[in-house]
Structure formats: C-alpha cells, structure tokens
Amino acid sequence: MPGRNRVGFYQEQPEAVIAAELEAVYAPTFISAHTHVQVDRHVSRVTPLTPVALSQSLHNTDSGNGLTGNGHLIGGARYWHVINPGSVGLPLNGDPRAQFAMMESVPEQVVAGGWRATHHRVAYDRRPTLEAYNTSGMAAAGGVITQLFYWELVTAETEIVLYYRWARARGLNADGDMLATFAIYCRESGRAEYVYARDPLFHQRV
What DSSP designation does 115 have? Predict the structure, then answer.
C-alpha cells in the first residue's frame, strides 16, 4: 500500500481483509508488490455508495456496463482486481523459479477492471547467482542479513522475518549481538540444515 510498506496481499488471504485495506482505492485494478508472491484475485465487498465517495472519483461516469469509474458497481458493491506479478530474483512462495506477469488490456466483459494478467514461472540455473554471494565479497561484507537473504534465494521462502520472530519469541535481541543470536538460531531452529539440503552449491561441493 502507498505509504505503508508493511501491508501486503496474498492469494490465501481472507477477502474481507484485502477489501478493508483497499477501501480508499478507487481504481478497479490494483497492482501490488513487496510480498514477492504472485497474486491474482477479484475482491469485492458490499458497501454503501455516498455522494462524497462518488465525488472523489476521477472518472465518475457510468461506463455502460453497470460500473462506475471508481471501482464501484452500481447498487453499492465495490470490487478490485488485485494483482502481484511476483518476483524474478527473490520469490517467497516456495518456488525458486523466476516469476513475473504480462499485463494485457481487455474489455470489461472479459476481465472485470479491464486488465488480464498472465503469470509466468521460468526455471533458470541459480548457481552463478548463489556463487556470486561469495565471489563478489557480499557474503563477507553483509554478515547475518546477507546470509539470510542467501537462504531465501535458495529456498524461495521467507527467512529474515522468521529469524526476527524467533528471536523476539525468546527475548533475544536480533540486532544486538547478531552473530551470537544467529548461531543460536542455526543451532535450535534447524533452518541451516533445511537450507543446505536444498542448496545446489552445497551439493555441488560435496
């Protein structure tokens, strides 16, 4: 959301939660990012239309198909087409393939909102990218956070958030003595073994 980088949308998220976050968005198509996961959902919620809400629309005219220009259906239903193309370099949905979407303008009768998203996932050799963490000096300079980013690239799963949640649940300062805290995290969480089992470079070396 603009100005709120901690708000993100997911495919399995309750419809009412997304609708509540989009209450002030009047465009019927909403493209989000930041979560690194592909999303393609049509979200609706019945809300009363008010003269104030209608006056805030940039295109407050009936388009001829029962839709106003502000994302509302005539009669009080509001809808949004919520799209996230995913992430080419760091997907976080468990699928390490590069992910993106192609957008195509289509008639409202084909897709509500007027935009169709075709989502793609493309496999590629990740070994050069993973190797560059060491050869570029990034791993040595970046410390724990860079290591956690590396783990996310290997598994295509959230790791940094897990680390901070784990530390907070145990009353540890994740940003204080980070090396010591990370060592405990590796020892107790089992995440290091989990990642190494999926790391193509680890298997290449052994």
Answer: E
